[in-house]
Amino acid sequence: MKNCPNCQTPNLDTAQFCQSCANPFPAHRVCPSCGASLSTTARFCRTCGAAVPPSTSLGGSQPGSGMTGQLPTNTLLGGRYLILHKLGQGGMGAVYQAADNHLSDKLVALKEMSDAALVDPVEKQQALDAFRQEARLLSALAHPNLPRVTDFFSQGNKQYLAMDFVEGHTLGDLLAGRSTPFPEPQVLQWADQMCDVLSYLHSRTPPIVFRDLKPANIMVAPDQKNIKLIDFGIARLFKTGARKDTITLGTPGYAPPEQYGKSQSDARSDIYALGATLHHLLSLRDPGDQPFKFPPLRSLNPAVSSQVEAAIMRRRAGLGLALADRPGVEGSLP
Fold first, then answer.
1. Cis amide linkage into residue 206, ω under 30° from 0
2. 58 φ, ψ to 5°?
3. CATH 1.10.510.10 region(s) of the chain?
4. What is the tens place of the pLDDT at every residue in 246-304?
5. Residue pair 83/98 in contact by the 8 Å Cβ criterion
6. Partners of 85 in beta bridges
7. Is the CA virtual torsion 289, 292, 297, 300 positive or negative?
8. 79-130 pLDDT, tens digit each
């Protein structure tokens, strides 16, 4: 266990953020040259002597000029975006915080994508199409629980998407190392906003299916009250008449059976993922450990009310078709 330097609350050693006040713990850093562990303030590696950029993150940078996440601080992109530091990286993309010098250095989140890791021409085209689709989808949306897209451009064989910079941490970050479930009132406050933004997306013509709702794609503001859905990388427009999805995408545990290529996903797929997300927040049980199996919430967290348990596990409280009554899904209430 380790104590939070801000509020002194005990947290698990693996925690990245305090479970009480959400204060971030110092990140582990490694030398980009030799991989040796570094202190959070180190400017030079004690093992090999290499200079360490302030933005060096966990795991260092990946080799290869075509890979993402390698832009150094003060790089100017698109003639207007000054890179400040990297916010995160995964798969084929990275996200930076940048200053827009066309708008008085307003802070933006700049998403970068490269298809360098893909060798199949079809996969390359699918990745590029998904990225462009994200830009088109978000640029046409206006909702308080969604980031606003402001620009889209290509540079150096990479694609970039500029959007509002959202302060805070993801629910995935807050879950990491947490030893107790989130309080029910707090989860319900977030759930109300999730339902509202999903209703907005599903009411578009044609409906927009988010298809990857999970804690890592839900940003929580510093006040711990307001949330935003982020990362529309695999969001799609529902295609009338399609028998099943052509690309199997989603996150195991949160993705319903139809996203495994069994049938066409629709708005109910997001409702399923919402139920899985709320189940995780209230139980700390990662649904990815045993996909499609959801023990009754109160068996894992007796503090959850029977009404909330029923709403998440069955067709109640406006959540629609959640975890119960799905082919291959276990754990519905009797």
1. yes
2. -50, 125
3. 179-313
4. 444 567 788 776 555 555 567 788 898 999 999 999 999 999 888 888 899 999 999 99
5. yes
6. 97
7. negative
8. 999 999 998 886 567 899 999 999 999 999 998 887 676 678 887 787 778 7
3-state secondary structure of 140: coil
Q: Is 85 exposed, middle or buried (0-12, 13-18, 19+ CB in 10 A)?
A: middle
The one catalytic residue in 212, 231, 245, 270 is 212
Q: Own/partner pairs for 120-125, CB < 8 Å, 24+ apart?
A: none
10: which DSSP letter?
Answer: E
Query: Position of tokens 């029923």?
Result: 310
> Given its phi and psi angles, is residue 318 left (phi above 0), alpha (psi -120 to 50 degrees) or beta?
left
Decide: 192 and 319 in contact? Cβ < 8 Å: no
> Where does the chain hold its CATH 3.30.200.20 domain(s)?
62-165
**Contacts (Cβ under 8 Å, ≥6 apart) of 140:** none
Q: Is the pLDDT of residue 58 over 80?
A: no
CA-based nearest residue to 178, from 153, 215, 231, 141: 215
Examine the residue annotation and report whether 266 is marked as an active-site residue of this protein.
no
So what's the architecture of 62-165 in CATH? Answer: 2-Layer Sandwich (3.30)
Closest CA to 227 of 152, 281, 303, 177: 281
Cα separation of 22 and 221, whole Å? 10
Confidence band of 244 (pLDDT split at 50, 70, 90): very low
Burial class (CB in 10 A: 0-12, 13-18, 19+), 71: buried
Q: What is the CATH number of domain 179-313?
A: 1.10.510.10
Contacts of 3 (CB under 8 A, 6+ apart): 9, 10, 11
Classify the C-alpha dihedral 1-217-148-317 as positive or negative: negative
Helices (H), 21-160: 121-139
